[in-house]
Write a structure and sequence with these properties.
The complex is a heterodimer of chains A (259) and B (139). Chain A has 259 residues and is mainly alpha-helical. Chain A contains nine helices and no strands. Chain A has one domain: Ferritin (Up-down Bundle), CATH 1.20.1260. Helix content of chain A is 64%, strand content 0%. Chain A starts with 10 loop residues before the first helix and ends in a 7-residue tail after the last helix. Chain B is α+β, with helices and mostly antiparallel strands and 139 residues long. The chains are: A mainly alpha (259), B alpha+beta (139).
Amino acid sequence: MTVDNLENAEESFVNALEAELLAVADDDHVMGNRLCDWTGVAPTVEEDVAISNVAQDELGHAELFYDQVAEIREGSSQELAYERSPEEYRNARLLEAPFEDWADTVVRHYCYDVADAVRLRALADGEYEPIEGVAQKVLDEEAYHTEHGEVWIETLAADVEGRERLVAALEDAWADALAFFEPAGEVDPAEAGVYGRPLDAQREAFVERAGSTFESVGLSVPDVDPAAETGREGAHSDDLEELLAETREVYEQGVDVGA
Amino acid sequence: MLARNEPGFDLAAGEESFPPVEVDGELTEEDLWAALEDVEDPELPVSLVELGLIQEVRLEDGHVTVTFTLTYTGCPAKEIMERMIERRVETVPGVDSVTVDLRYDDPWTPADMHESAREKLGEAGFACPLAGGGVCDDE
């Protein structure tokens, strides 16, 4: 079954689709903003440019998916990005803490890129036809991000201190990374038809892909359960609240001159 | 507080006006394509038509729908480009209304660029994919 127009779609499908698209957009919004902190202070000059480009991509993806949500719930991407309280956000907790360590950034961003790619593939393979082209376009762009992450994992793993930091970052992040694949709405989005692949199978695909990258440099992923609080249910850390307050600061002064 | 899209916020402030269009006889989609050649990419000295970003122009009873795409989704000039397309089409005699539809179903690739775009970008100092002599010429 395919859905080409939401006007004829069942309400449960529309609700599940809206919740998942909002989770995608919130993930990109939070990740993009966090990555911006590295502009100008990354480990190399070339990386300053690279990571800023990646941040721009993630922010662009956030806008794109906020636009999709805005079409469903009659709002604007501005309101969705800046005018919601933290508990209304559906981003994964994996993305919330500030980046204070390069290895931690590489690990969490890489886990995010792989998880996001698995999810976007499932979204493109779901029942909502109009999203297929959008998801595919974003997937094509994300391929560069995962490649970027793999190069850095290799680079850090080849250095004694870098390797120690990678291990510590992986220990800290893995349970949150596993918790990425939880429903953002009331119903199971795969059962509703939003995704063409169940969330558990998406998680397995993530573990296989990300795990094999870490294993290729001799690191094993921690044997832990997904974190109990995922972020998808709206349970967030204070870090998110602080981040969102910062992103809203200029917007709230009314000097938004976007385009 | 001056908020976006509220009275006093002029999105078009500072935008240059387009040259007038003359339509010979009844308005056609070809006239609209020709008019759109005046819409340049905000960052490159090439038109959106030459770049292959305008994918479809449909004219139905005075209503025009322009379908376009972006080279990449994070393009910061998205809204500027939508607005420029809209403004350009509105200047064409016989046009009542315009819808600009941004789509990604048929994703842009460098192969969508017109030869003239490659030449102009080369002259402007851009290393252009698929320009003459490259390994991609067979594509």
